[in-house]
Amino acid sequence: MTQTPEHASATAEVEAYLRAQEDKTLLRFITCGSVDDGKSTLLGRLLYDCQLLFEDQLASLENDSARFGTTGSGNLDLALLVDGLAAEREQGITIDVAYRFFTTDRRKFIVADTPGHEQYTRNMVTGASTAEAAVLLADARKGVLTQTRRHSYIVSLLGIRHLVLAINKMDLVDWDRETFERISADYRAFATELGVEAVTCIPVSALTGDNVTTASERMPWYTGPTLLDYLEGVDVERDLRAGPFRMPVQWVNRPNLDFRGFSGTIAGGRVRVGEPLVVLPAGKRSTLARIVTMDGDREQAGAGEAVTLVLDDEIDVSRGDLIAGAESRPEVADQFAAHLVWMDEQPLLPGRPYLLRTATATVNAQVTEIKHKVNVNTLEQTAAKHLELNDVAVCNLALDRAVPFDPYVDNRETGAFILVDRITNATVGCGMVDFALRRAANIHHHAMEIDKAARAAAKGQKPCVLWFTGLSGAGKSTVADLVEQRLHAMGRHTMTLDGDNVRHGLNRDLGFTAEDRVENIRRVAEVARLMVEAGLIVCVSFISPFRSERRLARERLADGEFLEVFVDATLETCEARDPKGLYKKARAGEIPNFTGIGSPYEPPEAPELRLDANGSDPETLAEQVVELLAARGVI
Amino acid sequence: MSYQTHLQRLEAESIHIMREVAAQFRNPVMLYSIGKDSSVMLHLALKAFYPSKPPFPLLHVDTTWKFREMVAFRDRRAAELGLDLLVHINQEGVAQGIGPFTHGSAVHTDVMKTQSLKQALDLYGFDAAFGGARRDEEKSRAKERVFSFRTRSHRWDPKNQRPELWNLYNGRINKGESIRVFPLSNWTELDIWQYIYQEQIPVVPLYFAAPRPVVERDGTLIMVDDERMPLAPGETPEARMVRFRTLGCYPLTGAVESRAQTLPEIIREMLLARTSERQGRVIDQDAGASMEAKKQEGYF
C-alpha cells in the first residue's frame, strides 16, 4: 500500500496515542445503590461525559426516552443508557448484574452495575466478586440509610478495600456543605465498624454532572477529587502483587513427550526462574525451570499473568493442584470455617453434599454447622438451621479431601469458592474461607486386619443394601419384611432398618423439617454402611424423599453394593390406603411437612428396580426384589 | 515490576477462560466467523495453549452468502496455522433456496445461521462453543455471562443463568446441554483494534478502505459481491471508497465510506467515530430488544 502523507500522519498520530496509552491500566468497580439514588443516572453521566456514547446510540436513546423516560419530554434520560433487558426496562428497575465499559486516556473501566434491593443481594455479591473498588450511592436528602449499610457490608465481605460514598443530588440540598459533612461523618463511623479504612466521600450531582468528571463550581468548599479523578487514581494492584506466589494449575500442557508445562493464571505474588516451589496438596518440592509464553520465555512473572510453568524435574502435577512459593505455603485442610452467601431458591441444608469449587479443584463438601446468620442490614448474628436465598452466614464445612487455600482476606482468588448443586448443576452459593479447622487432622482411619471381605466370606454371602424409597403407605416396609423373610429362609444374614423404628431410637432427636430429614438419612446411610462392613444384606425402608441424600447413601458404598428399589405408588393410592391415618391428619393440617402433602417427594431417576405398588400384591413385589438379588449375584 | 496494562489484563482473562473450557469440557469447539473478533479470539487461543495447538477445532457456519474475501481468508488462515476447520452449511436451507433476497433477512438468518448452528452443534455433539461476542456490542449483551448455559434445545433463558463469581466458571452440564463461552466479554471495539495493531494480527482486507462496487438501499451501502444480487431497474453499482466495520452476509452488511487503508487509520477513525459498529448490520435495526429475542432462540 502506498504511503500518502495522509497515511503517514495518521500512523504517527495513532502511534503517539498508543504510546501514551502504554501505561493505561484497568479498573473494575461496582456501583451500588437503588434507582431512587440516581445510580443509573450517575453511571450514564460517567459514560456520557467520557464521550463514549456513539451517535447512533444517542439516536436510539432519544427514541427510548419517549417510550420509557421518566425525566420529562425533551431531556435525555441518562439512566436508560445503562438499563438492560426489555422486561426490566418496562418495570423501570435493574435486576441483574450488567457490565459497562468506558475509557479515559489513563484507564479502562469495567463497571458491574447491580441492583440495590435486599432481594438482589446475590447479584451484588456476584458483581462485587470481581470488583476492585466500590462506588456507593447515597441521596443527600436522606443520608446513610439501611441500604447504604447493607451495600457497604457486602462489598467489605467480598474483600473490596477501596470504597467511595458518592453523596448524590447535592443540587436538591442547595449544594450545602454541612449536609455533606454530616453524612460523611456518619458514614466514616460506620465504615470503621466494618474495618474498612479507605473511604472517600464525594458530593456530586449526577443530573448536572457536578464533581462527576469535572470539579463543581457550585461547591467550591469541596477540594477533594472528582469521582473520575478518584477512579483514575486509585491503586488496587499493589496488594495482589505483594503477597506470596500462588498459581492454581488449570491445564497440563503436553504437546509432545519432550514438553510438560503447567498452565494457569498467577493468583498472587510473583515468581522468578530458579526459585524453589512447592506443589500442593501433595507437598512435593521443585524448582522453576522456565516461564513459557508464545511471546517468548520470561525471566519472571507476577499476579494476573496467564503463563505456563515448566519445573526442573518430572514430578506429578495435575489440574486442581496449587503451585506456591516454597517459603510461604498456603494451608491444606479438609475442614474450614467460611462466610457463605446462599444464592439458590432451594435452601442450603447442613449435611447435604454439594460440589465445592476452588480456584481449580472440585470436591464434595457439606456444611457441618451453621454457626450463625448475619443480618445484612444490622450486622446482628442470629441462629439458623438452614439458609435461604440471599442469606449470609458463618459456617463450618467438611470436604471429602484436603485442598490448598489461603484465607480470603489474604488472597481473593485462592480463598474463594463456589458451591454447585450436584443434580441441577446450578451455582447455588459462594464462600470466602476464614480459617482451617484442625479437628479432623488427628483422627486417622485405623486399618483393621479383619475387613469387609473377610466378614462376608465367613457368612458365605455378598453384602449389600436394598434401599426401599417411596411415599408413606406405598408398602415399603411390607415388601422389605417379606424380602427379609425369604432371605432368612435361604440362610442369609440380614438386617432391616425401618424409618419408624430408627426414629424411636438413634434418630429420636430429629423432626421432619428438610434439614432434619437430611440428617436422618445421613445417619441411616452410615449405619447401613457399617452393616455392609459387617457382611450383612441390609434392607433399608425409609421414605427418603430427596435425591441428594439417596445419592449420598449410594456414594458411601462400593459400586454394586447399593440397590435402590423405588416402591412406586401414586399419592392417591397411598392416601386411600392411609394405614396409619397420617394422610388424614396431614390434610387436616395436623402434620406439617408431611411428604407428598406439605413436603416434596423426588422420585428416583434411575433406580435399580421400580416396583409398581399401585395394585400388585406384596408377595409378587418381594419376588421381584429377590430376582434382582439373584441377577446381581448377591444370592 | 510495573502493573499490567489494560490489554494485558484482558488478554490474560481471555486465556484463563479458554483454558478452563479446555479443562472442563469433553468436546469444545471455537465458532469462527472470520471477522476481527474471531481473529482476536483465535490469536488468544494460540497463546493460551502454546506450545500446544488449541485442543479444539474451529467451526464456521457458512450461510453461503459471506463475502468471497472472507471465505478465502478463512481457508488461508486455517491452512497456515494447521488447524482443524469444520465448515457447516444447512443443506436443507440450500435445497429450499433460502437467501436474503428471496426470503428477507429474518428468515435467512434464522435458517442459514441460527438453525444451521444448532444443526452443527448437534451433529458433532459439542458441549461447549466459544463465540466472539462482546458485552459492549448491544444492551442485552451487557448482562450475558462468560459461561452462558443453553438447554438441550439450545435455548438461552435470561432468567435462569448461573451466578458467575470471581474467575470460577461453572461448566457442569447434563448430557445434551451445552455452554456458550464468550472469552471476549470484557473487550470493547477499541480494545479489539488496539490489540490487533499491537499484536499484528491478520484480518480480512474488507476492513480496509478500497474502491468497491456498491449500491445504496434505504441509506445503507451494500456491496455487490457476486452475480446473485438482484438489481432494481436503473440501479447500477458504482465504485466507492468504502470499508466494513463488521462482517457478515454481504447483502446484510452495510459498508461505510472511508479512506482508512491502514490499521492506524482505522483506529483513528474509530477514535473519532460518530456511529457505533452495529449500525452497519441490517439485522439490528428492528425494535430495541430484537437481539434479546434472537438470543433466546439460539442466535449467538
Automatic annotation (TrEMBL), chain A:
Pfam families: APS_kinase (PF01583), GTP-eEF1A_C (PF22594), GTP_EFTU (PF00009). Residues 24-241 form the Tr-type G domain. Its EC number is 2.7.7.4, 2.7.1.25. ATP binds at residues 470-477. The active site is at 544 (phosphoserine intermediate). SUPFAM superfamilies: EF-Tu/eEF-1alpha/eIF2-gamma C-terminal domain, P-loop containing nucleoside triphosphate hydrolases, Translation proteins. GTP binds at residues 33-40, 113-117, 168-171. PANTHER family: TRANSLATION FACTOR. This is Multifunctional fusion protein.
TrEMBL record, chain B:
It comes from Marichromatium bheemlicum. With CysN forms the ATP sulfurylase (ATPS) that catalyzes the adenylation of sulfate producing adenosine 5'-phosphosulfate (APS) and diphosphate, the first enzymatic step in sulfur assimilation pathway. APS synthesis involves the formation of a high-energy phosphoric-sulfuric acid anhydride bond driven by GTP hydrolysis by CysN coupled to ATP hydrolysis by CysD. NCBIfam families: CysD, PRK05253.1, PRK12563.1. It holds the Pfam family PAPS_reduct. Belongs to the PAPS reductase family. CysD subfamily. This is Sulfate adenylyltransferase subunit 2. Pathway: Sulfur metabolism; hydrogen sulfide biosynthesis; sulfite from sulfate: step 1/3. InterPro entries: PAPS_reduct_dom (IPR002500), Rossmann-like_a/b/a_fold (IPR014729), SO4_adenylTrfase_ssu (IPR011784), Sulfate_adenylyltrnsfr_sub2 (IPR050128). Residues 27-254 form the Phosphoadenosine phosphosulphate reductase domain. It comes from the Bacteria. One of its GO terms (molecular function) is sulfate adenylyltransferase (ATP) activity. Its EC number is 2.7.7.4. It is an enzyme of class 2 (transferase).
